[in-house]
Amino acid sequence: LPSSAANLRPGAEQKVVFITARVHPGETPSSFVCQGIIDFLVSQHPIAKVLRDHLVFKIAPMLNPDGVYLGNYRCSLMGFDLNRHWVNPSAWAHPTLHGVKQLIVQMYNDPKINLEFYIDIHAHSTMMNGFMYGNIFEDEERFQRQAVFPRLLCQNAEDFSYSSTSFNRDAVKAGTGRRFLGGLLNDTSYCYTLEVSFYSYIVGGTTSAVPYTEEAYMKLGRNVARTFLDYYRLNALVEGPPAPIPKTR
């Protein structure tokens, strides 16, 4: 997404948030969450304007377009689970991953760019609510800093569960974007998998499940975007009284 001249002026350090979605074709809720993020960031909402002035958002909304077109649940046209091939993607067999990884590595090696976040959006078939997976680090301070964003998101989104958020280094997940990039990027970068339930969420303090709708998924996306305002402590720059987060459609 385009950022303002303030962030892209020559010589300025760019803080980049990289977001990907739909690497698993059957996980349709991830597209609605991503749509909510995009629609909010390009809107005229005062928070969106501040975010565009201070951050660069790079978004790949569909990493597995051929799998989506074919109606596959998890695999690409070639039969690969793309989210297990980040370590060494092939330009022939995993072209979208290859291209996105090249772009991320290029930005990582650019001294004028600080790649601060990578978030890969998925949907979960058995868990409820939205939640995140993060990485495990030997550095306790880095591990604690990694928990800040999901904690803030939990305050902004009633359907996001911090208690379901977990940090792991499961060997089965070694080829995922979150795990691979978490090992590649430096200690100022944070990599997450954002999961959202296929079916419902439970609001804190209640016991009844609320069915997810397309609008509720997009609202989660809007709340993900607005959480960057809190993370970077940019609230004082928002002009006028607090504006409600608009409905996407």
TrEMBL record:
Essential cofactor(s): Zn(2+)
Family: Belongs to the peptidase M14 family.
TM region positions: none
Matches recorded under PANTHER family: CYTOSOLIC CARBOXYPEPTIDASE, CYTOSOLIC CARBOXYPEPTIDASE 6
GO molecular function terms listed in the Swiss-Prot or TrEMBL record: metallocarboxypeptidase activity; zinc ion binding
Catalytic residues (UniProt): E195
Entry-linked SUPFAM superfamilies: Zn-dependent exopeptidases (SSF53187)
Keyword Electron transport: no
Record keywords: Carboxypeptidase, Hydrolase, Protease
Residue ranges constituting the Peptidase M14 domain according to the UniProt record: 1-232
Lineage, highest ranks first: Eukaryota, Metazoa, Chordata, Craniata, Vertebrata
Alphabetical list of CDD domains matching this protein: M14_AGBL4_like
Protein name, per record: CBPC6 carboxypeptidase
A GO biological process held by the record: proteolysis
Pfam families associated with the record: Peptidase_M14
